[in-house]
Amino acid sequence: MLLLMLVIDILALIILFFIRNKISDKKFTNIKQRIFTWFIIIILFYLGSRDRIYMLILFGLISTLSFKEFLQFAYTKYDNELKISSFIVNLAFYIGIYLKNFYILLILFILICLRFYKRRFIIFAFFITSYLIGSICYIDDLNFIINYLILIELNDVFQYISGNIFGERKITPNISPNKTVEGLIGGIILTTLTATLLKHFANIDFQVKFIPYICLIGFIGDIFISALKRKVHLKDTGNLLLGHGGILDRVDSLIFTAPIILLIFKL
């Protein structure tokens, strides 16, 4: 799957240079940045797919950076105390995930609640960025994780394409005006079709009957972060990923789908 994504990324770059004269300089730069960022993302997840520890380190980094960005939604300063807390919490969390010890995770969350009981948003931030996003790492089948992560990202792409071509009816005009009913439905159909084809022709173990639900829940995660951004007048959660924004802008679809994917794996 990662090889397929790499091929698609290279083809996208080639096509971009072929249509260079038909789009504005601003759009050309943005798309080029997105494509190069995807190269980096693919390389990072390739390394993560080689060893479970590498995958945990990668998600630990994602959780830590996501926590920093999430604090913006409550105008909370990412001070030294929270930097240290974030490091310790995520280190303990992913050690618990590695050991598959539910009690470590439970005790850790109790300690978080006791430490920040007067600052409930911080507890909420840790729950979202570590416990929800990181829950997918409880799966020890790295290929399973990678395949579903790619499918979630493809759903975002398919929704974007479908919305741009067919989009007319806005689904969340006050939160994310570019989201349309046609984009959502098109994304669900194309992602489910892709999963079906890959299951039959590439022998990838997708539970196709759950794919529409994953697409819908991924959309809800996207809208959830968009609503928080609109509340504090942010376009992006950060600028770390050129052309994409922040870490949360890229993993928002994973917030609520990660626990669902874990559940599918356990079935």
TrEMBL record:
Q: Where are the transmembrane segments?
A: 6-23, 35-67, 87-114, 121-139, 210-228
Lineage summary: Bacteria, Fusobacteriati, Fusobacteriota, Fusobacteriia, Fusobacteriales
Which top EC class applies here? transferase
Q: Which GO terms describe its molecular function?
A: phosphatidate cytidylyltransferase activity
Q: What is the recorded name of this protein?
A: Phosphatidate cytidylyltransferase
Recorded superkingdom? Bacteria
Keywords carried by this UniProt record: Membrane, Nucleotidyltransferase, Transferase, Transmembrane, Transmembrane helix
The EC number on file is: 2.7.7.41
- Organism whose genome encodes this protein: Fusobacterium vincentii
